[in-house]
Amino acid sequence: MAQRILVINPNSTAAVTQGIDAAMAPLRFADGPRIDCATLAEGPPGIQSQRDVDHVVPPLCRLIEREHNATDAFVVACFSDPGLHSARETTDRPVLGIMESGLTTALNLGSAIGIVAILPASVSRHMRFVRAMGLSQRVAGDRAVGLNVVELSDEGRTFERLVATGRALRDEDGADVVVLGCAGMARYRERMEDALGIPVVDPSQAAASMAIGAIRLGWRTGRRPSA
After folding, report:
1. N or C: which end of the chain has fewer CB within 10 A?
2. Cβ of 4: how many Cβ atoms within 10 Å?
3. Is the full-model pTM beyond 0.85?
């Protein structure tokens, strides 16, 4: 049976899921696992607050439970990594969060990480996560583009803001690698990297790459509640 990765967008905006799906294209190959992308219908249009993060945890875990037998690895495609630890208690399949995966990937590409957030309110949430990972000394800055998740679909305005924010992280904060702080930014990664001249990490791609490795090596990182 073909192996499968399920990438879950925990918000209900289908355009974000479509962008994530397009970003998976380089990771789809003939003898590799199938990569499917799903939208969490119960989620808010965008996950932009801690309350949004907390809201999606139960339906996210229920979706993982339903898909457990048909899936070899899961990716939670929101930069707040909602429900990551709860999800890992729901299944014995690997569950990758894109913030965790994006930051750990960036560690291998540069010495000072810059994070591009969507809104100013996201920054404090990101930095709580950074401190919990013990990475405060490796994060040079976290700056917001000032657009919500739905507004990221406006390509002209979003790309201009992304590049301006990335340049501030590079030139003012000293970042030598940038992590996109929202799954809705996936479509802009390559153009942004060209504009900045430094590595730009799409965290959904980073997490899916790790999921492929975990499947190939037969890793199990979670456990079933009954275990």
Report:
1. N
2. 17
3. yes
Q: Is the confidence at residue 226, as pLDDT, over 70?
A: no
Residue 210, helix vs strand vs coil: helix
Q: Where are the alpha helices (DSSP H) in the chain?
A: 14-23, 50-67, 84-88, 98-107, 120-133, 155-171, 189-196, 203-217
pLDDT digits (tens, 9 = 90+) for 162-190: 999 999 999 999 999 999 999 889 889 99
Domains and CATH numbers, the chain: 4-97+205-217 (3.40.50.12500), 100-202 (3.40.50.12500)
In tens, the pLDDT along 47-68 reads 888 999 999 999 999 999 999 9
Contact at 8 Å (CB) between 106 and 113?
Answer: yes
Burial environment of residue 135 by CB neighbours within 10 A (0 to 12, 13 to 18, 19 or more): middle
* Burial classification of residue 156, based on how many CB atoms lie within 10 Å of its CB (0-12 exposed, 13-18 middle, 19 or more buried): exposed
Confidence of residue 227 (pLDDT cuts 50, 70, 90): very low
The first and second tokens of residue 141, run together, are 């800055």
Nearest CA to 126 among 207, 20, 221, 47? 47
